[in-house]
Amino acid sequence: MAFGAFATTAAQSQAEDAPRRRSWVALVLLLPGIAYLALFFLVPLVSLVLTSFNAPGPSGAMGDYVPGFEWSNYVTVVSMYGEHIIRSFLYALLATAFALLFSYPLAYLLGVRLRRFPLVQALGVTLVIAPFFISFLLRTLAWKAILSDEGPVSTALHALSLLGSDDHITGTPFSVVFGLTYNFIPFMTLPIYTSLERLDLRYVEAGGDLYAGPVQTFLRVTLPLSLPGVVSGSLLTFIPAAGDYVNASSTFLGGTGTQMVGNVIEANFLSLQNYPAAAAMSIILMAIILVLVGVYVARSGTKDLV
Amino acid sequence: MPGTLPDDPIIRRLVQQARAAQLTRRAVLAGAGGIATAATLAACAAGEKAKPTAAKDVSATEKTLAWSNWPAYMDEDDDGNHPTLDAFEKQSGITVTYNVDVDDNNSYYAKVRDQLALGQDIGADTVCLTDWMVGRWITLGYTQELDHANIPNISNLVPDLEDPDFDPGRKNSLPWQGGFAGLAWNTEKVPNGLKSIDDLWDPSLKGKVGVLSEMRDTIGLLMLSQGVDISGDFTADQFQAAIDLFTKEVNDGQIRNVKGNAYLEDLQNEDTLAAIVWSGDITTINGEVGYEKWKFAIPDSGGTIWNDNFLVPIGAAHKANAEALMNYYYEPEVAAEVAAWVNYITPVVGAKEAMESIDPDLAENQLIFPSDETLATVKRFRTLTSAEEQQFGAAFQAVLLG
What we know:
Chain A has helices spanning about 10-15, 20-50, 70-110, 120-130, 135-145, 150-160, 175-195, 200-210, 215-245, 260-270, 275-300, and strands spanning about 55, 65. By secondary structure, chain A is mainly alpha-helical. Chain B is built from 16 helices and ten strands.
């Protein structure tokens, strides 16, 4: 119930006395929020759905579409861009996994190990947030320069013969996944840190008292208690990463073989003026994310997350 | 409700539709209106078919002008002022707002098309866009006809550009600058240079080749290398043959990247050693390193030539002011001053003579003042039909998206 929050036990009897007035007040209070959602979420969403069913206009001119019920738009984009959809989710999944691998130890260090040194802990958290002070576009461009053929990384790898003379780093799936991972690490670290920071260390001690080894204690105590952080961190990484079009764009770290769904939508919208295709792709992306996230949240069993 | 309708076309349409559907205020507030409004918006965005009408010209009373243009396309001194533009303001009394907000034909168009379709002001009284995009605007009725009586200097227009297929008689547009697409290479890493498009496919350049994301330039050069005249009536099969070659070189990893103006970074950080590029840019990046590190050449099978053209958008209210500006930039001395800075081809007759007094070397520069021999080596991509534009554009994007 939307107004459930108002009906606390203390206010229960009062609420029953004047239910009409109360719901009216609640409605007034909620009105700005509802109006905001209706205007900036519902209207664009409906417009997007309608656009995705548009049919080519009679003039045949570029960007000319009329309202219609072209279900085939969806079939066309899936058959044309199915590979990009799979690629996007694969990249997003890899980036989420790598971000988790890097972030968990980092968050553990900050949230558990550094508890005794609040100053160092605060400094560490600041350092995790620090990249946000520079636009992520600039940071991604900087990585492009670092990873470029004549940049330090490629030169070193060439010198060590770890990279063939024809091989390069930018414009490959590696650089795109790298960019995604890099850009989303703070989003992964902070929620896990918040969970671990509240971890009651007496539980860990109790694990030891019950003859559990460090690994078992971690798996059965620490990890489950930090799961809300892991789940929200991976959602905060996975959802935007799947729709990201900056890292994969050829202006940044991507190339012709690494384009993701976001790039397909951008190309269809800006270059081809194929608005129905762009809208259909957006809705497919949204639907897949909704399903995946729904399954993930249900499976991970953390009810008090969202 | 009073019978008068609001002036704004979108709101007027909304009011009309709302009345027609007999929507009560309560229903709108109840939230069902949200959906209805969206449907109405969608309907009126798509339902607009009639060509928009031109805005009333208020140039006589309002001495202002907003001009949208591409980056690095205007003379600039060390303080960031534009000397020729300042002189125009002083001479004409018109205050010009110079906006550098065009960086891609398609994305600029995508930004303003809805307002154009409704005949609204897009915040620019004149814009410079590339030939084919100008053609699209003219076909859709998004431009205002120029009054040549206000532009006496139009007599200085290069004869070759007087009658393009997208705008016969230059009724709606006037060239600003032009340029070539051709080959460029890093003279330190590729000392022997490049002569033909086929040289780009040399195994030694594998993964070191960049091409432009401007379809007409990249595919145009490939078609020319396959012996197709891009200014003539080539067929879809001939276009497809170039796309096939392009696809192969991208898939083989010979072509490293396909980019817009950002290709310059790739040349500079040596991700690419040879590339299909725009002529004026190479002078600019050579200027940054201080010596001729990169060279530009028109391939032996021919290069492409294009122009960016002034046009007056349909909703612009300062057409006469825009015409005064065009007239000013068609003074040979002014044109020469701009060309000396931007290094692109000036469309103004007499600018070469004027340049001789500014910088005699530049007057001989084939990239600014091409001779007839140079011009004989380049072709202009013909205007595509709507159907071709969609078909070819989709084929080209498909390669870019991989």
